[in-house]
Write a structure and sequence with these properties.
Structural class of chain B: alpha+beta
Number of helices of chain A: 20
Radius of gyration of chain A: 25 Å
Shape of chain B: globular
CATH architecture of the largest domain in chain B: 2-Layer Sandwich
Number of domains of chain A: 3
Largest sheet of chain B: 6 strands, antiparallel
Low-confidence stretches of chain A: none
Strand order of the largest sheet of chain B: 9-8-7-6-12-13
Number of helices of chain B: 12
Number of strands of chain A: 12
Helix content of chain A: 40-55%
Largest sheet of chain A: 8 strands, mixed
Radius of gyration of chain B: 22 Å
Number of domains of chain B: 2
CATH superfamily of the largest domain in chain B: ATP-grasp fold, A domain
Distance between the termini of chain A: 44 Å
Mean pLDDT of chain A: 89
Strand content of chain B: 15-25%
Number of strands of chain B: 13
Low-confidence stretches of chain B: 124-129
Oligomer: heterodimer
Shape of chain A: globular
Strand order of the largest sheet of chain A: 5-12-11-7-8-9-10-6
Order of helices and strands of chain B: EHEHHHHEEHHEEEHEEEEHHEEHH
Helix content of chain B: 25-40%
Strand content of chain A: 5-15%
CATH topology of the largest domain in chain B: Dna Ligase, domain 1
CATH class of the largest domain in chain B: Alpha Beta
């Protein structure tokens, strides 16, 4: 991993709090390394973005800082523009075909990862391997599986960025047009004109609603009560005979693949998936079941949503001043609609499904290494970098082959303990939003697109300290409406049980996995996220006032405090 | 020919005879938008009245001879003309017709207060924001008073500001005439103005609504800082809510006319329009804009008893319409090339 060095002081860096809100453990930094390797390749070498190359990253105390590499030489820009036309334009023109192929590639990659066996070291090589003349012993497959796991993860990120910048670019082209034509239009309104109605991102919650309906139909709904652990519910269902078994079959259908979403954004090993921890989806079931029993259908009103989107598009078009502008509008929104299924859909395959498989495979190595005395806890494996982990695995392979003790058990526990302590300390450090000389303008399209960072937003962050005196916290207006209520500052998913009806959720990051509890709460505030983030889209569907991207909400709002959320203006007031 | 027209019988094309305000109110009523009922004293009545005055001593010729920069002369001439107008009686047939119409408007007892409003033929035209130069008289209690106010409105065509406005632009006096609107006075709980295009950014996707307690004259005259809302024209989202300290309101005075009274403490910082009313205003704003086919400045009132929204005036927005020039974006031969606005860097 690339640590910050003295020479880096001369460059401008900003803290990527959007993807890395907490200090990273050593292994998790692979997410930065793999992602920036692929992002840079797509920008610099594949599509040849005219004015920007890749994104550099540096690690300081577990925090990921990033900086762009602008292309400023006009001759270079011209050369790259010619290449961009040949490459990116081809993608736009053949988007549907290439995106269909992309999904096939991703499913194949997921299939490969699922096919990798669990790493194990038997005392004696299984007889059938010997008789089959396999000729390769089990210890070799540790390295093989590990390297394939890592290779697959790096490859996944190339797929991730194959379309991403082009997709965001087409969306932002339309977005910027709307902002020029309608200077006061809200980000949410533009997002609603483009957002898909049947995107993958809505599926997990839809599956949950379906399971609630099925529970009522099968008359097993009484089993689902607030505060009862998921395992207890599943055990009860196994005991009630056919209807219970039938519901569990339905659950299995939903889980594969739709419960492969993790409760974060895919950058931390401890943001587990619904499949790994059923407490999140199960927390939403009693509420949905109550609504089914009250006669609600819980079906998303697709027709109504489609009609609403069509109306927004047509009526804004009508407001434009000239036919010339209307034609340009039609062209831009058509392109935005073309790219948006990828923009919305890719996360499910990449950051959620594949990433869960990846971290769980590493977890299997953690189990094996812990069993051989390398760690006290299987999760300690995530305190090693991916280079160190390979060394530890080879150490174990070697000791299995020689029959002598590995070095690891004497080496790693002390390091792991130090690193765990460091993460605890770093988490308490204030993290400067930017380092180095602040540029006058930020017009690197990659940075503006992916992080929404402009000179204005930087100024806002840099002023955030001065704001502490006031009783207002500002963020992005994500979902309209004003609500007052009791703040519940929730740091992890385990705490969701503390949320009562009418509470306001205050958390670092919300994503679609939080949807089940959106039915319960009155509003949501997050540290991280933009107004076109999925959290914002889901909040809007629930008609829930939400302010995202405040930067400081979880540190400034006290649990139990009364707050007012103005989702239309992006302001949270401490009462 | 009658010198009176009811709103239902006139529209924008009748402006040469009913003036800008009269034409606009008729047009709104035709578009099925609620306005307080009323009629227009057509320009013919003014022309007849003026002809009688010209017969006594020249009016228009004296005005045309004035220099807009010579304020002393303008003021002296204005005062003289207005004195003559107020001192001269209406022709009997005209007075009779207005009295009858007023009686119809005011019910069997003729007790409903009315507003008597100037409606010049040059006002409210696109490109010539002529509004506000002539007089309006509110809460006029009876027919005799209304007749007097009609003559005052006519006289206000010769206010110092109006004369200067016309002289400085060289408008011939013969091209300017004056109708007068007489309509039921709205007992407004709340009133104000709205713009179907943001006055600050020119955005066509929002309706900006300003309002305060009581009659709209306090808002239009700038005597109170109104509450202000910005509402998405299409989405209905309220993106700005600026609730101000509304210290005063205009209320009907006991003896007729209006007076300024203090707003009771408990109401000063309370929004004077609720969310449901904001949405009704937005709907009306869209209806009006669609009907006219261009952005509008609108005066509105919410009646105290019925909570009904009534429009008092609508005229084309002039500031931003004049600024629109370069299109926001042009159609592209290859639609994909639009992305270069993002990827191509600053130019």
């Amino acid at each position: 991993m690339i640590q910050f060095e003295a020479a880096d002081d001369r460059r401008f860096w900003f803290y990527n709090s959007m993807h890395f809100p907490e200090p990273m453990s050593c292994f998790d930094m692979v997410t930065a390394e793999a992602a920036y390797c692929a992002l840079g390749a797509a920008n610099t070498r594949v599509h040849c973005l005219p004015t920007t190359l890749g994104i550099d990253h540096r690690i300081i105390n577990g925090r990921v800082y990033i900086g762009g590499n602008a292309v400023t030489d006009p001759a270079q820009v011209e050369r790259r523009t010619a290449e961009f036309h040949k490459r990116a334009f081809y993608y736009y023109e053949n988007w549907e075909r290439l995106y269909t192929a992309w999904k096939q590639k991703m499913l194949a990659l997921i299939g490969e990862a699922q096919a990798l066996p669990a790493p194990q070291l038997p005392e004696f090589e299984p007889l059938e391997h010997v008789h089959a003349g396999r000729g390769i012993a089990s210890n070799h497959f540790l390295l093989d599986v590990y390297q394939k796991t890592l290779e697959g993860y790096f490859r996944m990120w190339h797929h991730h960025f194959e379309f991403l910048l082009l997709g965001y670019g087409a969306y932002l082209t339309f977005f910027a047009f709307c902002k020029r034509a309608f200077p006061e239009i809200s980000d949410q309104t533009v997002a609603r004109m483009v957002a898909g109605i049947e995107a993958e991102i809505f599926r997990p919650d839809e599956e949950l609603r379906r399971l609630a309906r099925r529970a009522v139909e099968l008359r097993v709904d009484a089993t689902f009560r607030d505060g009862v652990p998921a395992e207890t519910i599943i055990r009860s269902l196994q005991q009630v005979g056919p209807p219970g078994e039938e519901w569990l079959k339905e659950l299995a259908t939903s889980r594969d693949p739709w419960f492969n979403i993790n409760v974060g954004d895919g950058f931390y090993h401890y943001h587990r998936s619904w499949n790994d921890d059923l407490s999140m989806p199960f927390a939403g079931l009693p509420g949905y079941i109550a609504r089914v029993k009250a006669g609600e259908s819980l079906e998303r009103p697709l027709k109504k949503l489609q009609e609403e989107r069509r109306r927004l598009i047509a009526e804004h078009r009508e407001l434009l001043g000239t036919e010339e502008e209307r034609t340009a509008y039609d062209q831009m929104i058509a392109l935005a609609h073309r790219v948006f299924p990828y923009v919305e859909g890719h996360k499910f395959y990449c950051e959620h499904w594949y990433t869960n498989l990846f971290f769980n495979k590493i977890r299997e190595f953690g189990v094996l290494l812990a069993a051989h005395g390398f760690f006290a806890d299987t999760e300690d494996v995530f305190h090693l970098t991916h280079y160190e982990l390979e060394a530890a695995i080879i150490d174990l392979m070697n000791s299995w082959s020689t029959g002598a003790a590995p070095r690891g058990p004497a080496h790693w526990p002390k390091i792991v303990a130090e690193r765990r302590a460091a993460l605890g300390v770093w988490a308490k450090h204030a993290t400067p939003p930017a380092l180095g000389p602040v540029p006058d303008v930020i017009d690197d399209p990659a940075i503006v697109m992916l992080w929404g960072i402009t000179r204005d937003s930087l100024d806002r962050w840099l002023l955030a300290d001065g704001e502490r005196e006031s009783d207002e916290i500002r963020g992005f207006a994500a979902s309209n409406g004003v609500v007052e209520g009791t703040a519940r500052v929730v740091k992890s998913v385990e705490e969701i049980g503390r949320l009562g009806k009418g509470d306001i959720l205050v958390c670092q990051i919300t994503n679609p996995t939080w949807a089940p509890i959106f039915q319960k709460i009155a509003g949501a505030v997050s540290d991280i996220g933009g107004s076109m983030s999925h959290a914002a889209i889901v909040a809007r569907e629930f008609g829930l006032p939400a302010v995202v991207g405040t930067g400081t909400a979880t540190s400034r709002i006290k649990d139990g405090q009364r707050i007012r959320v103005d989702g239309g203006r992006g302001i949270v007031t401490l009462l | 020919m009658s010198c009176i027209s009811w709103f239902a019988d006139v529209g924008l094309q009748d402006r040469p005879h009913v003036g800008g305000k009269g034409g606009s109110l008729g047009e709104l009523q035709r578009a099925a938008i609620a306005v307080p009922p009323g009629f227009v004293v057509r320009t013919g009545a003014f022309e007849g009245f003026l002809a009688a005055r010209e017969a006594e001593a020249p009016v228009r010729a004296r005005i045309e001879a004035l220099d807009a920069d010579d304020l002393t002369a303008v003021a002296a001439c204005s005062a003289a003309v207005r004195r003559r107008f107020e001192a001269s009686p209406l022709a009997d047939d005209v007075a009779e017709e207005i009295r009858n119409a007023h009686a119809r408007l005011g019910g069997p007892h003729g007790l409903t207060p009315v507003a008597v409003r100037s409606s010049a033929t040059t006002e409210d035209a696109i490109g010539a924001s002529f509004a506000g130069l002539q007089d309006t008289y509110l809460w006029v209690r009876d027919a005799a008073e209304a007749l007097r106010m009609v003559r005052r409105c006519w006289g206000s065509l010769y206010s110092v500001e109006s004369i200067c406005y016309r002289r400085s632009r060289g408008l011939p006096e013969g091209a300017v005439s004056m109708a007068v609107v007489v309509q039921t006075m709205v007992d407004a709980r709340t009133a104000g103005v709205m713009f179907t295009r943001s006055p600050t950014t020119g955005d066509r996707s929002v309706v900006v609504i300003e309002g305060a307690w009581g009659l709209g004259s306090a808002v239009v005259g700038g005597e109170v800082t109104p509450d202000r809302w910005v509402v998405g024209k299409i989405t209905g989202e309220v993106s700005v809510r600026d609730i101000s300290d509304k210290r005063i309101r205009h209320a009907p005075a006991i003896g007729g006319g209006i007076e300024t009274v203090a707003v009771e403490d408990a109401s000063r910082r309370v929004p004077c329009v609720n969310d449901e009313e904001l949405q009704r205003l937005r709907t009306i704003a869209r209806q009006v804009e669609r009907h006219y086919g261009c952005a509008q400045d609108v005066e509105w009132a919410i009646e105290r008893a019925s909570a009904e929204v009534l429009l008092l005036q609508s005229r084309p927005e002039t500031v931003w319409s004049a600024k629109d020039s370069a299109p926001v974006a042009r159609a592209a031969e290859n639609p994909i090339s639009h992305v270069m606005s993002i990827f191509g860097g600053r130019r």
